[in-house]
Amino acid sequence: MRYAVLAVLLVPPFLPAQPLPQPAKDMCVECHAVMDGPIQTPALLFKDDIHQANKLSCADCHGGDRASDDPSVAMSRAKGFIGKPKRAAIPQLCGNCHGKPDFMRRYQPQQRVDQLELYKTSVHGKRLATGDENVATCIDCHSVHDIRAVKNVLSPVHPLRLPDTCGRCHADAQKMAKYGIPTNQLEHYRSSVHWAALKKGDLSAPNCASCHGNHGAKPPDVGSVSAVCGSCHVLFAQLYEKSVHQPIFSAASGGGGCIVCHSNHAILQPSTAMLAGQDAVCSKCHDPGTPGARTAAQMAQWIDGLGAALKHSEAVLGEADKYGMEVSEAQVRLGDGRENLVKARLTMHAFQPAEMQKPIEAGMAIADETLRAGQAALHDKDVRRIGLAVSVFFIAITVVAIFLVIRRLEANGSGYLNPTK
Amino acid sequence: MTAKVLQWFDDRLGLSAIRELADHKTVPVHSATRWYYFGGITLFLFGIQVITGILLMFYYRPTVAEGFDSVRFLMTRVEFGWLIRSIHSWSANLLIFVAFVHMFSVVFTHAYRPPRELTWATGIVLLGLMLGFGFSGYLLPWNQISYFATKVGTDVAGSAPVIGESIARILRGGEDVGAATLTRFFALHVILLPLITSSLIALHVILVQKNGMSTPPWISAARVRQMKFFPNFFLREVMVWYAALAILGALAAISPWELGEKADPFASAPKGIRPEWYFLAQFYTLKLIPSHVWFMEGELLGIAGFGALALGWALIPLWGVNLAGEARMRLVNGVGIFLVVYLAVFTVLGYVK
């Protein structure tokens, strides 16, 4: 705690007030860029930094006079030079600007300014306040001297790179040993449907920060898990909240809500194997033969049955399409059937078979309707070919008949006129 | 009774003149006689186009909102609608192919010589009209491929020198392919082009009738045997027509003409968009020409080149004969073979690449 207080005191209060006047050259960068060793690195990295792009200087964080080429002036305490900030002081140092709406409006009017306040509520922020300097501060996630915009794919907090950034500490068993928390989250997350979607380029797919928050990062409480999942899976959450399982799962130890069946970081592609069969998650609570297990098996059978029926219709329509039959209307209709399959999977989360039966029946009716359309098209294809064979047969007879007529006509050379010599 | 009825019509229409014509019309019999059939097949396929086209018009609605759906309705709900549309589309392609064969057979048998210059000229214009039918008809189902192919096609027309932009605007009825393009292509396809084509076909046939069938220059017309047109040649022609009908039926039943997806002007152009096969050689050539050649734009140069080539080709009766009116066989055969090889190779390359 005393470190934090000290750190706050060490940060000069004038830093965020006004951006410094903009001289033609930033002497900090000019000089450090031509130096050797580690002291050169920040100056080289700074060319990719978003602050540099916004004409801010080293001196805006470190203090000192950017305009002076005399080191004793440029880095004089009198000019507010603080040198390398203490780790514990970094959140406040960043917050000096990023927490000031009037200042941030000049650069990023839409950017939030509550990062510091949120950070203070996070596990990281709370531990830092108690003097634990091993926890993440702003620069551990955003990098330092080469801080890029979040949407920049090279930024360590870009959605595609964030899991690795969090994993740099949270997957390190040595670093996490003293906190007693698992280190398999990154490995589990990489097996999940969320990562599968994200790495395919769907940047809206959840990364660590989507569920845990970013600046206010902390694990969701048991009671808020379904709210966290429900922020994207809205309809699933609504149905689940009304279900018989909600109070039971919420009381479960070691996490509750959605993660009871779907896990937390290793959220795999759901299938009916979760409902019925040897490895079914339902069977962990519902013994075989009990009403609950029978209901789960029934729901699995419905979903599998509709999926298979739609696939069969799709195959038959595809076959008809291959033969050039016009089945596009039925193929579009098949899309409605697939929608009902999705609805059935959704309504399953109410755990009420009667609710689920409606989309299943609607979907089966569409599967049947489109199957008949496909079969009719294939039948039509056969009829056309038979019709073609019959037509060609009659055409052939006609051609032969004409040929015979020509032969009879020309039997004695009639119809030809010899040249006049 | 029949004789009386016939006499009644004869008195009023002069049918005996037609009978006399049929009795006296003959066709030379020699090694190249088989090429005479191709003109007849082209005429037969045009007839098929007229009949199936009229049947299609009973259902087709030439609007952006309804065009595609009306064709789909025809293909899926109307009894034998699929057959009518498939035959119309297949026949259109066969017709253009057969018309090309007919044209080259005329070149290689040197039938363009005097006094058949006008027969050749009307034939060339007719071929251009057939390509116009193909281009305008392609858009009418208003599907994704035809929409974007028409965009490309009208862009090419638009790059013609001086009048290009005006042509593109007139064709499209505006800045881009849209509702106005569809209605004017429809009007072109079912009114204007059929009127001009029918008149020209009549003139073409009358000219063939007037000048008789040409005998190749290497065969002495005076020493060649003649076959009576009616019934001997006519019956043979009917046999070929029947065979063409069987081929059309087979193509329609085994490989129905596909409809594709409804045109979406806001979608990105489908991959590998290209025009119909009869424009592929030109399309591929334009792709090969660099964007700038000397002081000219590449596309402009290509268009100008095609224009010059087409004009030169149409003027064969002028440069393909000597002062005595005899065919310059080696020159014309050379140019003809070059053109056939160019069209065949570039069409295949345009399809493959």
Key words describing this protein structure:
heterodimer, A: mainly alpha, 23 helices, B: 353 residues, mainly alpha, Cytochrome Bc1 Complex, Chain C, two-stranded antiparallel sheet, 3% strand, globular
What is shown here, in short?
The complex is a heterodimer of chains A (421) and B (353). Chain A is an all-alpha fold and 421 residues long.
Please tell me about this protein's structure.
The complex is a heterodimer of chains A (421) and B (353). In chain A, 55% of the residues lie in helices and 0% in strands. With 421 residues, chain A is mostly helical. Chain A folds into three domains: 2-218, no CATH class; 220-269, no CATH class; 291-409, no CATH class. In chain A, helix 22 runs antiparallel to helix 23 (353-409). Residues 1-17 of chain A have low confidence and may be disordered. In chain B, the strands form two sheets. Chain B has a two-stranded antiparallel ribbon with strand order 1-2. Chain B is globular and about 65 Å long. Chain B starts with a helix and ends with a helix. The mean pLDDT of chain B is 93. The interface between A and B is medium-sized, with 28 and 34 residues. Strand 1 of chain A pairs antiparallel with strand 2 (225-228) of chain B.
Multimeric organization = heterodimer
In angstroms, what is the radius of gyration of chain B? 23 Å
Please tell me how large the radius of gyration of chain A is: 36 Å
| Count of distinct structural domains of chain B | 1
> What share of the residues of chain A does DSSP label as strand, in percent?
under 5%
Q: Give the tally of β-strands of chain B.
A: 4
Cα(first) to Cα(last) distance of chain A is 129 Å
SSE string of chain A: HHHHHHHHHHHHHHHHHHHHHHHE
The pLDDT mean of chain B sits at 93
Strand order of the largest sheet of chain B: 1-2
The total of helices of chain B stands at: 14
- The chain-level mean pLDDT of chain A equals 89
Roughly how many Å apart are the termini of chain B?
67 Å
Count of helix runs of chain A:
23
Q: How much helix, percentage-wise, in residues of chain A?
A: 40-55%
Beta content of chain B = under 5%
CATH architecture of chain B: Up-down Bundle
Give the biggest sheet of chain A. Answer: none
Shape, principal axes of CA atoms of chain B: globular
What is the domain tally of chain A? 3
